[in-house]
Amino acid sequence: xxxxxxxxxxxxxxxxxxxxxxxxxxxxxxxxxxxxxxxxxxxxxxxxxxxxxxxxxxxxxxxxxxxxxxxxxxxxxxxxxxxxxxxxxxxxxxxxxxxxxxxxxxxxxxxxxxxxxxxxxxx
Length: 123
Hints:
Layout: E1 3-6, E2 12-15, E3 23-24, H1 49-62, E4 66-71, E5 79-86, H2 94-104, H3 106-109, E6 114-121
Parallel strand pairs: 5-6
Antiparallel strand pairs: 1-2, 2-3, 4-5
Family: Belongs to the BolA/IbaG family.
Pfam family, one: BolA
Organism: Maudiozyma saulgeensis
């Protein structure tokens, strides 16, 4: 008798008799290429067109010293992690920094499930 258990990320683990081995699907240990995690100075490559759109909007509006955009939803575009370092944040509180970014990305954010946002002052 073989049992299959579905774990995180859709990984399946198969358990059988004492003679069978435990088979773990590669997706359990999958790693994602974070090629978009490069800074502005190094250049940017994108996993999805949406990452590129978000990146360009923020680049144009904030002229950041550092900008990373990650689609952390697995490619479906519903969750992003964004890190921005800009001198436009120097006189703003964290809440106002986030409101500024939310205003820039208002249209995109309305389609997302979630956003992880980190803003930094450039002093």
